[in-house]
Every structure is written in C-alpha cells, then in structure tokens.
C-alpha cells in the first residue's frame, strides 16, 4: 500500500494498518509474557485480542501523542493497554447474559468459539493485563505519567465510564426491577453513549496528551475533538445496525431495535442522524485547528468514523 501527502485517505489507511500491526505484535508478546498457565485461556485471549479489528483507539492514542513529538514506539504500550480494555469489553458484551452475540469481527465470539466461563476469564485476563502493561517502565519512564495513565484508563473503563454506560444501557432495555422499558430522551441517550462508547475514545486522546506532557489548552482541544468523534462513532454504529448487513459489518445487525436499545436514531431519524454526523465531523475538525497540518490524520479519522461501513 502506498500513501501520498495529497491523498489523506491512503495515508490514513496506511497509518491505521501500521498501528494495528504494531499493536497486534505487542499484544501477542504481552499475552505470551504474561504466561497464562492454561493454554486454553491464552488461546481465548488471542482469539479476542488478535483477530481483526480497526484498532481505532490505539491509532487515536498514537496520533494524539505524535502531536507532541512522541514516537509510535513510545506510545505503543499505552495503546496496547487501551486495546486490551476494549477487547475485554467486547468479550463480555457478547455473552448470553449481556448482548448474546454469536459473531464479532466476522468470526465466532469468544463464548461461542470456547465457552461462557472461558470467555469471562479471558475478558478478566485482558482487563488486568492492561494495567500490568501500564505499570511497566516502557509505558513511560516518568512514574507520574504512568500513574496518570493508569488512573485515566481506570476511570474511563469503570463505573463512571464504559461499565456504567453498559449498565444504563441494560436498564433502558428493562432488564431490571419490573422489566418495563422506559424510553430515554435524547440527552439521556447522549449521556449513556458518552459513557459506554465515548469514554475510551476520550481516554485515547487524553493519553496521547499525557504522554506528550501537553499544556492545558491543547489537552482541551483534544478533549473537544474526542467528544465529537465519540458521538459521531456511536451514531454511525447505530446507522450500521439499522442499514448494514452482517456480512459487511462483521456482526449481527438489527439487534438494537430487537432489544429495545436506546439510540439517537429513534429521536433524530435517519436523515437527522446523518445531518448530526456531518455537524459532529465539522466540530471535530475545528477542535484540531490549533495543531494545523500535524493533525491531518486525526481529522481524516473523524470523516472515516462517520462514513465507515463496518
């Protein structure tokens, strides 16, 4: 694959591919180095973490760090740790007790390829591996930076972030108490999605700024970018669930409506959602203006997220 300064789409594809390859190699070594006593557990972790995926979150972290002169190799441990958390969340979300999915990234989900118990443990192992990685000196020479990364990822992944958002999502389906579904208003849906999906995307950009010892102004610019990108990502995902096909998307579609999940499609409609996507891409690009041409790939990533087909 070749890239050109005049062809940001090719440059983006190249950068995504290079980051994905580096993250996969790092995680393969990390899983081996973590020495799971069970070959079955190691195989399930590899199935979850190494087989496919765009590696968007690691890419955002690497490219955000690059804005402050941090090379990819130096940002790779934090990027791999973030991907561990993302992959663990997919393994657990796919379980029968959660979303009950059979397909992920075009292949059987971990609990289908193995079994429920192995999937739970593989997810647990990936989550804890993330913090093992961040605690190592190669994640950052400065202990204060390592602490900031650990704290940031823990908050993004926990009850005030991704896990809390998943709980709100299940509650909106009527999973608890009397089982009645309570339709959510648009602001409530946005809050849920900001926690469930947006928190890890926010961390990706924040971690790049942490690694680069960025000043407050530039951290805030990246935060505005990641907020807009996270909202765009979720709307695009909701549109794919309505309009996509499983063969292209790589997972079951139409499941949100079947489960009664809260999405902005319900309140905005298809056309309104597309207009909001366009607005959010513009917002993301505007937030990057302070970085000039150095942020070209991040701006292109916002357009890619909005227009993706899988």
Quaternary structure of the protein: single chain
Main sheet properties: 2 strands, antiparallel
Count the domains. Answer: 1
**Outline:** globular
Low-pLDDT ranges: 1-8
The number of helical elements comes to 14
Give the terminus-to-terminus CA distance. 20 Å
CATH topology: Farnesyl Diphosphate Synthase
Look at the structure and give the CATH class.
Mainly Alpha
| SSE string, helices as H and strands as E | HHHHEEHHHHHHHHHH
Mean pLDDT reading = 90
Give the class from helix and strand content and strand pairing.
mainly alpha
Q: Work out the radius of gyration.
A: 19 Å
Which architecture name does CATH use?
Orthogonal Bundle
Share in β-strands: under 5%
How many β-strand runs?
Answer: 2
> What is the helix content?
over 70%
Q: Which strand order spans the largest sheet, edge to edge or round the barrel?
A: 1-2
Please tell me about this protein's structure.
By secondary structure, the chain is an all-alpha fold. The chain has helices at 8-33, 39-50, 56-66, 72-93, 110-113, 116-135, 143-157, 162-172, 186-211, 216-243, 246-249, 255-259, 264-287, 296-307, and strands at residues 103-104, 107-108. The chain has a single domain (8-307), classed as Farnesyl Diphosphate Synthase (Orthogonal Bundle). It has 14 helices and two strands. Helix 1 crosses helix 14 (296-307), helix 3 (56-66) crosses helix 9 (186-211) and helix 13 (264-287) packs antiparallel against helix 14 (296-307). The longest helix has 28 residues, at 216-243. It is globular and about 50 Å long.
């Amino acid at each position: 694959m070749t890239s050109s300064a005049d062809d940001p789409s090719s440059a983006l594809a190249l950068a995504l591919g290079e980051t994905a390859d580096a993250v996969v190699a790092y995680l393969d070594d990390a899983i081996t180095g973590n020495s799971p006593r069970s070959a079955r557990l190691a195989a399930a972790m590899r199935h979850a973490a190494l087989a496919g995926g765009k590696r968007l979150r690691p890419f955002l972290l690497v490219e955000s760090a690059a804005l402050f002169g941090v090379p990819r190799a130096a940002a790779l441990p934090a990027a791999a740790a973030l991907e561990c958390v993302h992959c663990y969340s997919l393994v657990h979300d796919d379980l029968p007790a959660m979303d009950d999915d059979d397909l992920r990234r075009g292949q059987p989900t971990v609990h289908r390829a193995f079994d429920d118990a192995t999937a739970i443990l593989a997810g647990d192992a990936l989550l804890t591996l993330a913090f093992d990685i961040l605690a190592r000196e190669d994640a950052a020479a400065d202990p204060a930076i390592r602490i900031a990364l650990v704290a940031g990822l823990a908050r993004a992944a926990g009850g005030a972030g991704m896990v809390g958002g998943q709980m709100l999502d299940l509650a909106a389906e009527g999973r608890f108490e009397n089982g009645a579904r309570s339709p959510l208003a648009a602001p409530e849906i946005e809050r849920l999605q900001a926690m469930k999906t947006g928190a890890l995307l926010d961390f990706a950009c924040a971690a790049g700024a942490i690694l680069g010892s960025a000043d407050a102004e530039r951290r805030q610019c990246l935060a505005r970018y990641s907020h807009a990108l996270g909202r765009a990502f979720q709307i695009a995902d909701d549109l794919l669930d309505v309009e996509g096909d499983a063969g292209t998307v790589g997972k079951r579609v139409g499941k949100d409506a079947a489960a009664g999940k809260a999405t902005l499609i319900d309140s905005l409609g298809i056309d309104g959602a597309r207009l909001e996507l366009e607005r959010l891409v513009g917002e993301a690009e505007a937030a990057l203006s302070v970085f000039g041409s150095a942020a070209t790939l991040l701006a292109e990533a916002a357009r890619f997220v909005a227009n993706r087909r899988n």
